[in-house]
What we know:
This protein is α/β, with parallel strands linked by helices.
Amino acid sequence: MTVRTIGHWIDGASSESRSGRTAPVFNPATGGISAEVALADATEIDAAIASAQSAFATWSRTSIARRQGVLYAFRELLNARRGELAALITAEHGKVLSDAMGEILRGQEVVELACGFAHLTKGAFSENASTGVDVYSLKQPLGVVGIISPFNFPAMVPMWFFPIAIAAGNAVILKPSEKDPSAALWIAELWKEAGLPDGVFTVLQGDKLAVDGLLNDPRVQSISFVGSTPIAKHIYETASRNGKRVQALGGAKNHMLVLPDANLDLVADQAVNAGYGAAGERCMAISVILAVDPVADALIDKIAERIARLHIGDGAAAVEPDMGPLITAQHREKVASYVDTAEQDGARIVVDGRGLTIDGHEGGFFFGPTLIDSVPTTSPAYREEIFGPVLSVIRVPSFQEGVELINSGEFGNGTAIFTNDGGAARRFQHEVQVGMIGINVPIPVPVAYHSFGGWKQSLFGDAKAYGTHGFDFFTREKAVTARWIDPAADDRIGSGINLGFPRND
Ligand code: NAD
């Protein structure tokens, strides 16, 4: 049986690949191959960059009013048709439909923020900074900008970047994950319908070859990357070495600190939502609960009760399950191996999701919600990112030891504290070495007008995603110092020769 090939989007049109290289795309709920995706070669990478560069020349000169019109049209089309996008995401990623819709809505917040870009890309003006001299600043787009995104949010993560990049006048090349490549193409068609000129939004399907092509081409001015930490590091080092502006968001290991005064029913609900939503394939998922003595046993019982009520199945089923499958069979093996390691290292497996099969979907990449008690903090199952539906509970004697454990980790993406003690929460937000903090909120993804990004090995580079950081990242400033001679002034010729450094007076 021949499967359809998912190609690129270059110069405002779908573009079949001629590279002869492809990768399979699965439906994770059945395990079947639903399509194959093209993997770009050097000729296609060059064509994508050349088209974007030529589109940039015109788009960057297009008036603010016209650019705004395109953004508003895109937002309206997304509002009307986002159900189609959610279905595509579920079919290739596996997350349940309402969760796919959730990611689109969070991405749409950035589109809406970008609709008001004129205010956020204004320069400043200082009249008479020196006598008869004005100083002002302009914010200009960078040029061709690259976005490289992970499999787990095929719509939201690209939307963290491209609405702002396009609004500011750049031309975008998006290299989506080869595991779920269709969302990007759907978005490209929507841009076309919204009136975006050809070449301003390009989709280049591919693997390391396409990524390295973007990293090494001098016509690409910046790279926005989201993915695992080893690749984020490679991206950051290579793009920086090549003189590009770069923001590279990496992996995570997010802790929830539970103080004894917290409402344990609320904590158990939120731990299950944040640990098992999207089968744990979220960079802001809670992976470790630090239970300050003596709440661990009661909390474990409450979480186990809730797990027993979860329904796992095909995310596209008419009766929506709570949780879908993992992305690939290979990833399921990796998640299982971490549970094996935890067990070998002496942890107690309270609820075991290994070996789960779903009737009628025996080939699907399902892995059941898993709860682990007392994993040693030296175990790779504690120290490394698992990226699956696996929650570990670790007992800590005090608030301070909980904070120290969080701070000893290599990642610093998100964390949460659950307590009714405002003083403790305030101390937590001050002392914890993490970029995004929730207080009785388990997944503290900031709204679009704040910025998203972690600390330590979770973010390489100075700029976070979206918010004011996004506008700063996708523009560069020019300062102009100008003197216009007053036609009525009697010193129009100037004050004569002076080789000293110019002074303001
Ligand atoms: P990944 O690092 O495997 O892939 C991300 C992107 O890099 C993909 O487009 C992929 O094609 C490309 N890539 C993969 N290997 C490459 C290589 N050797 N050279 C160049 N490019 C390469 O990540 P993933 O598995 O798709 O996504 C999951 C990871 O992303 C997790 O670690 C998760 O924590 C992280 N993530 C982080 C955030 C955040 O905001 N910090 C958000 C979402 C996901």
